[in-house]
Design goal:
alpha/beta, seven-stranded mixed beta sheet, five-stranded parallel beta sheet, 28 helices, 34 strands, 35% helix, 17% strand, RNA-binding
Length: 866
RNA sequence: GCGGACGUGGCGGAACUGGUAUACGCGUACGUCUCAGAAGCGUAUGGAGCAAUCCUUGAGGGUUCGAGUCCCUCCGUCCGCACCA
C-alpha cells in the first residue's frame, strides 16, 4: 500500500474538479437550491492570510454536505478590489492600480484553489471590472433618481494622513479606523445617501431574519431608535437678539419628568450657530463655546471628561408649569444628537445630576424609584444611603425620605418604569410610563410639543476624493441648471446623469494617484476627462470627480453572483428568484434571501447595514425579489498568533497558510482550522495541533489495510457508527465543527482496533469528505469507485439500529456516585431499583438505614436518598 | 456607564432540555521498534493519599435527591456602543 502523500493527490483532484467543472451550478427548477455566501476578500498584495480560510472552509464544509444531501448549491467567490491599500501602493510605486489588482487577484486565486474550495469559479466577480461597476453606477443612479442621493455641504470627518473623507461609521474614538490618525472636521461638498429614510425598515427587517444575536443587537444599537417628544421652551424677551427669538426645541425620551426640569442645556454647536447669525452673547459665553468645540475634536476618550458649561443669561419657560429656568451652554450635550438641546432633570439623569451638583443648580425629585433618585441608593433591606436632605433643600413639597421609601417599597419601584410620579401636578400618582403617554398628549393638545422618534443613524457620506473607486456617473451643466431642466433635489446645482446605455463610466488612466490637500480627487486634474458634453442639452459640462467608497461594490455583489455575465441587467429577475427566493411553498412575498451568510463581526455594522439598505431599496423599486438580502447570518472568531495576540507583521507572529499546506497538506490544514476550537470564538494557532490532525488522517489512511469482509460487526460497532453519523450531521449544521471532528476521531480510534467491513469504512469516508475532500476522493477511488465521492449521497442515521445489549445504570447515594451496574435494556423501573438496593456497595453506604426516597431516571441512573 | 459573550486539567477545549465532569487533540512519562535518532505503534495521564476514600468547573451563598449547567452577590477577561438626552 502506498502511504499518504497529500501533495500528489491534492493536485490531481484539484485538476480534475476544474476540468470536470464539478462545482459549477445552473439554475434547476427540479432541485432545491442552497445559496451559501462568504464575504469576498480584498486582494491585498500580501496574499492570503490564515484568517481567510476559517470562514471559507466552514462554508465549504456546509456546501459540500448540502450537495451530498441533494441541494443545488451556489457557493460563489469574487474580489472586493477597490480600496486604499492598492491605491497607496500605486502612489508609492507609480504602478497602475488596475494592473496591481489583476496580479493580486491571480495570487489569491491560486492560493484559494490550492485549498480545494468548492467555489463556482465560473461566477467569479471583480468589483473593479467595468462590466461589474457599470451596475454599481446604475444602482447609484437609481438611488439618485429616487431622491435618496443628494449633495450636501457639511462638516465631514477628514483624515489628514489618508487625505480622505470618512463616514461616521469609519471613525473610531475620534480617529481614522484605518490608520489611527486623529480625524479633523472639514467643510466639504459630499454626496450623501439617505439611509435614514430606511431607518425604520432596517430595524423592522431584523425581525424577519435569523442573525446571531450580537449581530442583530449591534445593528439595533447602531440604528438607535428612541421614542419621546420634542418640547418647545419659550424664550424670554431679554434674548431678543437670539435667532430663536420665540422658542427653543428640546428632545427628550422622558417627558414624564418634565416637572423636574431645572435648566435647559444646549450644545456648543447649537450656540455657535446662534452666534453666526447675530446672537449678542457675553465674551465669557463666546470663549466657552469656542473652547468646547476645540476640545470635541481633540478628545478621543470622553469617559473622563469633566463637565463644563456657562450660563447664557437667557431664561426659558417650562411649558408644563410655567417656571422660568436658565439656559446653559454645556459640553455634555452633543450637536448632532436630537435637537442639540435638552431639558435637564438632575434628579433622574446622572449627567444632569453631575452638572447640577457642580454648578449648584436645583435638583427636584419627580419620580419615586430606587434606582433613579440620584444621590440616593437603596440596599436590599430598603435602607436609603446618601443625602436626600441635600437634594430637596430647595423644594418643600417633595416627599420626605421616609415617605419616598414607603412608596418605593409598596410599589416595588426599583426601575424608573415602575416608579410613581410625584411633585408633578396632574401627573402625580401615575406610573412613569403612563405619565409619559399622558404628558405627550398634553403637549400636543396645548401645541407646545409633539411625539417624536429619534434615530442615532446618520445619512451615509458616499463620496471619496480618491482615484481607485467607482466614478460617480454624474455631469454638471450650468446651462441646464439655469434653465431648471433638472428637478431640484439638493441644495446646489443639480447634476444630470449619464444615461444607462452609456454606462459604465470608466475610470480614466491618470499619471499620478496622489490625493490633493485641497481635498479633490486626482481625477479633477484630468481636464480631458472632466470636461465633457451635457447628456441632456449637449452643451459644455463638467464631470463629478469624486468616487464611491469601497462599501459600494460589496453592497450588492451577492446579487451579481446569481447572473454574473448578464450584459442587459445587473441580474435577471428569473435567476434572482431562483437563488434568492424562498423555497418554502407558504412563503410570504418578499421572503427569502441568501440562505446562509457567514462573515466577520467587524462587518456587522457597516457592510451588513449598507447592503441591507441597498437591497431594501432595490426591492422597493421592483428590481430584486426579497426584502432582506440575507436570511441567516453567522460569524467566525479570529485566529490569533501562537502567542495569543492578534497576528501582525510587527509582532512577527504571522502564520503563512502556503507554508502549512506545503508541510502538512491542504486536507490536514483545513481540518485543523475546523478543529482548533469553537467556530465563533477567537482561537490561538498551535502548529502541534496541526500535527495531531495529520496523524489522524494517516490513521484513517491505514484503515484501508483492515478492510475485510469477514470482519465482525457487533451492536457496539453499530452504536459507534450510528452515533457518529448523527453527531457529525447535526454538528455541521450548527457549525460545531470541532466536536464533529472529535467524533470522527473517536470512530477511527474504535475502528483501528479491529478489522472492518468495507461499507463501514465508506460511511466514515463520506462523513469525513466535506472536511478532507481530496483525501477522501483518493481513498474512495482506491476502493474501486468510478464516480467521485462528492457526487455521493450523505449517510442517513437510524436510531433504531442502536441496540443496546446492556445498559449502564449509575447508582447515587445522597447525590454521590457509588455504583455502576450493567443491566438488560428491558429491565423495568422496579427491577432496576431492586438491583440497586441489592448491590453490595450500595448496601455499605446505606449503613442499614431505610431509603427515604428513590429516584429513577430511565436508562441512566438511580438516586437513593437516606 | 450601558449592552453582549465568557471563566472547566500543564495547554486548546468536550458535556443534549440539571443526571457518571475533564470527550477529542496537544503535551508529558514509560514501553516497543531501531546501530541510533525522528516518525510509528502500545499503555498511562485532574489533584491528594499505600489504601479505603476525599477534594476539584473564577470566589462565596441559595434552590434540588442531584448543579459546570438554574437563582443571588462578588471578582476577572474579551467584544460592541458611548455624555444618544
Amino acid at each position: 500500500m502506498k502511504s499518504y502523500n497529500p501533495k500528489e493527490i491534492e493536485k490531481r483532484w484539484q485538476r480534475r474538479w476544474e476540468k470536470e467543472k464539478t462545482f459549477s451550478v445552473k439554475e434547476d427548477a427540479k432541485k432545491k437550491k442552497f445559496y451559501a455566501l462568504i464575504e469576498f476578500p480584498y486582494p491585498s498584495g500580501a496574499g492570503l492570510h490564515v484568517g481567510h480560510p476559517r470562514p471559507f472552509t466552514a462554508m465549504d464544509v456546509i456546501s459540500r454536505k448540502k450537495r451530498m444531501e441533494g441541494y443545488n448549491v451556489l457557493y460563489p467567490i469574487g474580489f472586493d478590489a477597490f480600496g486604499l491599500p492598492t491605491e497607496n501602493y500605486a502612489i508609492k510605486t507609480g504602478r497602475p492600480p488596475a494592473k496591481v489588482t489583476k496580479e493580486n487577484i491571480a495570487t489569491f486565486t491560486r492560493q484559494l484553489k490550492s485549498l480545494g474550495y468548492s467555489f463556482d469559479w465560473s461566477r467569479s466577480v471583480d468589483t473593479t471590472d467595468p462590466e461589474y461597476y457599470r451596475w454599481t453606477q446604475w444602482i447609484f443612479l437609481q438611488l439618485y433618481k429616487h431622491g435618496l442621493a443628494y449633495k450636501k455641504n457639511q462638516p465631514i470627518n477628514w483624515c489628514p494622513k489618508d487625505k480622505i473623507g470618512l463616514a461616521n461609521e469609519e471613525v473610531v474614538q475620534g480617529c481614522c479606523e484605518r490608520c489611527g490618525t486623529p480625524v479633523e472636521q472639514r467643510n466639504k461638498e459630499q454626496w450623501m445617501l439617505a439611509i435614514t429614510k430606511y431607518a425604520d425598515k432596517l430595524l423592522e427587517g431584523l425581525k424577519e431574519v435569523d442573525y446571531i444575536a450580537p449581530a442583530r443587537i449591534q445593528q439595533e444599537n447602531w440604528i438607535g431608535r428612541s421614542e419621546g417628544a420634542e418640547v418647545q421652551f419659550v424664550i424670554q424677551s431679554e434674548a431678543k437678539d437670539l435667532p430663536i427669538s420665540r422658542s427653543l426645541t428640546v428632545f427628550t425620551t422622558r417627558p414624564d419628568t418634565i416637572f423636574g426640569a431645572t435648566f435647559v442645556a444646549v450644545s456648543a454647536e447649537l450656540a455657535q450657530s446662534w452666534l453666526k447669525v447675530g446672537w449678542q452673547a457675553s465674551e465669557k459665553v463666546k470663549k466657552n463655546v469656542e473652547a468646547t468645540l476645540k476640545e470635541r475634536v481633540a478628545t478621543a476618550d470622553r469617559d473622563e471628561q469633566e463637565k463644563t458649561g456657562v450660563d447664557t443669561g437667557i431664561k426659558a419657560v417650562n411649558p408644563a408649569n410655567g417656571e422660568e429656568i436658565p439656559v446653559w451652554v454645556t459640553n455634555y450635550v452633543m450637536g448632532g444628537v436630537g435637537t442639540g438641546a435638552i431639558m435637564a432633570v438632575p434628579a433622574h439623569d446622572e449627567r444632569d445630576y453631575e452638572f447640577a451638583k457642580k454648578f449648584g443648580l436645583p435638583i427636584k425629585i419627580v419620580i419615586c424609584a430606587a434606582k433613579h433618585v440620584s444621590g440616593l441608593k437603596f440596599d436590599k433591606n430598603g435602607t436609603a444611603h446618601g443625602s436626600i436632605d441635600e437634594l430637596n433643600a430647595s423644594y418643600s413639597d417633595v416627599y420626605t425620605p421616609e415617605e419616598m421609601l414607603k412608596i418605593i417599597e409598596e410599589n416595588g419601584a426599583e426601575e424608573l418604569e415602575d416608579g410613581l410620579v410625584c411633585n408633578s401636578a396632574f401627573l402625580n400618582g401615575l406610573k412613569a410610563l403612563e405619565a409619559k403617554e399622558k404628558m405627550i398628549q398634553w403637549l400636543e393638545e396645548k401645541g407646545v410639543g409633539k411625539r417624536k422618534v429619534n434615530f442615532k443613524l446618520r445619512d451615509w457620506v458616499f463620496s471619496r476624493q480618491r482615484y481607485w473607486g467607482e466614478p460617480l456617473p454624474l455631469v454638471f451643466c450650468e446651462a441646464c441648471a439655469k434653465n431648471k431642466k433638472f428637478e431640484s433635489k439638493g441644495e446646489e446645482m443639480n447634476p444630470g446623469w449619464i444615461p444607462d446605455e452609456k454606462l459604465p463610466l470608466k475610470l480614466p488612466k491618470v499619471a499620478k494617484y496622489e490625493p490633493t490637500d485641497t481635498g479633490e480627487s486626482p481625477l479633477a486634474a484630468m481636464e480631458k476627462w472632466v470636461n465633457t458634453r451635457c447628456p441632456r442639452c449637449g452643451g459644455k459640462a463638467r464631470r463629478e470627480t469624486d468616487t464611491m467608497p469601497n462599501w459600494a461594490g460589496s453592497s450588492w455583489y451577492f446579487l451579481r453572483y446569481c447572473d454574473p455575465k448578464n450584459k442587459k441587467e445587473f441580474a435577471s429577475m428569473k435567476k434572482l428568484k431562483y437563488w434568492l427566493g424562498s423555497p418554502k411553498p407558504d412563503a410570504k412575498p418578499g421572503e427569502g434571501g441568501v440562505d446562509w451568510y457567514n462573515g466577520g463581526m467587524e462587518h456587522t455594522v457597516l457592510h451588513l447595514l449598507y447592503s441591507r439598505f441597498w437591497n431594501q431599496f432595490l426591492f422597493d423599486i421592483g428590481a430584486v425579489p426579497t426584502h432582506e438580502p440575507y436570511k441567516k447570518r453567522t460569524s467566525h472568531g479570529m485566529i490569533l498568533g501562537p502567542d495569543g495576540e492578534k497576528m501582525s507583521k510587527s509582532r512577527g507572529n504571522v502564520i503563512n497558510p502556503d507554508e502549512m499546506v506545503e508541510k502538512f497538506g491542504t486536507d490536514a490544514f483545513r481540518m485543523y482550522i475546523m478543529f482548533m476550537g469553537p467556530f465563533d470564538q477567537a482561537v490561538m494557532w498551535d502548529t502541534n495541533g496541526l500535527v495531531g490532525v495529520r496523524r489522524f488522517l494517516d490513521k484513517v489512511w491505514n484503515l484501508q489495510e483492515k478492510i475485510s469482509e469477514n470482519a465482525t460487526f457487533s451492536n457496539i460497532d453499530e452504536n459507534h457508527l450510528q452515533t457518529t453519523v448523527k453527531k457529525v450531521s447535526d454538528d455541521i449544521d450548527q457549525m460545531k465543527f470541532n466536536t464533529a471532528i472529535a467524533q470522527l476521531m473517536t470512530l477511527t480510534n474504535h475502528f483501528s482496533k479491529k478489522n472492518i467491513k468495507r461499507v463501514h469504512f465508506e460511511t466514515l469516508l463520506l462523513l469525513l469528505s466535506p472536511f478532507a475532500p481530496h483525501f477522501c476522493e483518493e481513498l474512495w477511488e482506491n476502493l474501486g469507485h468510478n464516480s467521485p465521492i462528492s457526487k455521493e449521497t450523505w449517510p442517513q442515521y437510524d436510531l433504531n439500529k442502536i441496540k443496546n445489549q446492556s445498559m449502564t445504570i449509575v447508582v447515587q447515594v445522597n447525590g454521590k456516585v457509588r455504583e455502576e451496574m450493567g443491566l438488560v435494556p428491558e429491565a423495568s423501573e422496579e427491577d432496576v431499583k431492586q438491583a440497586a438496593l441489592a448491590s453490595e456497595k450500595v448496601q455499605k453506604w446505606l449503613e442499614g438505614k431505610e431509603p427515604k426516597k428513590i429516584i429513577y431516571v430511565k436508562g441512566k441512573l438511580v438516586s437513593i436518598v437516606v
